[in-house]
Amino acid sequence: MKESLFSFVQPPAGPPRNAGYDGADFRELDATELYCPNCRRAVPVNKFLLLVLPDGDRYEYRCKYCGAKVGDKVDHSGQFYGILKG
Ligand SMILES: [Zn+2]
Questions:
Q1: Do 35 and 42 contact (CB within 8 A), yes or no?
Q2: Distance, CA 39 to ligand 1 centroid (Å)?
Q3: What's the pLDDT score for residue 76?
Q4: Does pTM top 0.70 for this prediction?
């Protein structure tokens, strides 16, 4: 559903990855369950947007039951990135 953004953000030629842009292949891996070391099981998580950086949006995942941080990620193809470029 974000293909239209990719098409004009992505440079026509260049390194496909590790150049500050890897959104095309890394689409929507939003986790809904992650392993929580406190609960010792896979748990549903809440996703928080922590920071909007020039190279991507930083998210953090927290356990819905105990609130422990169970993961994070930087989304290089976030909507804010598209807005900044556009
Ligand atoms: Zn937990």
A1: yes
A2: 4
A3: 81
A4: no
